[in-house]
Design a protein that fits this description.
- By secondary structure, the chain is an all-alpha fold.
- It is built from 9 helices and no strands.
- The chain folds into 2 domains: 60 residues, Orthogonal Bundle (Arc Repressor Mutant, subunit A), CATH 1.10.10; 134 residues, Tetracycline Repressor, domain 2 (Orthogonal Bundle), CATH 1.10.357.
- Helix content is 74%, strand content 0%.
- Helix 2 crosses helix 3.
- The termini are far apart.
Length: 210
């Protein structure tokens, strides 16, 4: 068989595998968000994705599928070390100072709108599944690092001023922009996206300006 034919078939199989994985992750996201972690079975994911149960099993474990579903839904990317490496933050660092903070908050708000339900499922699953819990601790560590970098960038641009304790500011911003805040204010309390966005901007600015 010619080398170019083998390469074509290899690439075709790889593309098909990526497409199948994407369908399985999308199906997992829908089912986990609707039915929760415990009630969602591998067989149900297979039916939703239009593949066999065995195909789902060979793609990833249930815990891995939950993690991938959250990551893709929230940020558009799996296993990114930082938000700056994901679709959520694409191009933000290139923006001028007067557009930077609003762009960051808009993109995070949009990500929270997509991912808050799966975040709640992830938190619940971590209580009983050690694999999920270990991954959750990694996600939280990455969030802390991302927020520390954000505060540094805000300071460098002159948006954050006279911060006595940058670590405390990063922790407060992490709380404000969390999926939990979106869920409580928008999903549970009925705030509009516009009201939530205005509140978020004011609350974050209160932490970084005096």
């Amino acid at each position: 068989m010619p080398a170019e034919t083998r390469a074509y078939r290899s690439e075709l199989r790889a593309r098909q595998a990526r497409e199948t994985r994407a369908r399985i992750i999308a199906a997992s996201a829908r089912l986990f968000a609707t039915h929760g972690y415990q009630a969602t079975t591998i067989a149900a994911i297979g039916r939703e994705a239009g593949v066999s149960t065995e195909t789902v099993k060979t793609t990833a474990s249930k815990a891995e599928l939950l993690l991938a579903a959250f990551e893709v839904t929230f940020s558009g990317s799996e296993a990114a070390e930082s938000l700056t490496d994901t679709e959520v933050a694409a191009g933000v660092l290139d923006l001028p100072d007067d557009a930077f903070l609003d762009a960051v908050l808009t993109q995070i708000s949009t990500a929270n709108a997509r991912g808050h339900a799966l975040w709640t499922v992830l938190l619940g699953a971590a209580l009983s599944d050690p694999v999920v819990d270990e991954a959750l601790q990694g996600i939280l560590a990455h969030r802390r690092a991302d927020l520390a970098r954000l505060v540094d960038e805000l300071t460098r641009r002159g948006i954050a001023q006279d911060l006595d304790d940058p670590d405390a500011a990063a922790a407060a911003i992490s709380f404000l922009i969390s999926p939990e805040s979106y869920q409580q204010l928008v999903a549970q309390s009925g705030w509009t996206e516009e009201r939530y966005g205005s509140w978020l901007r004011a609350a974050v600015l209160a932490q970084i300006t005096r």
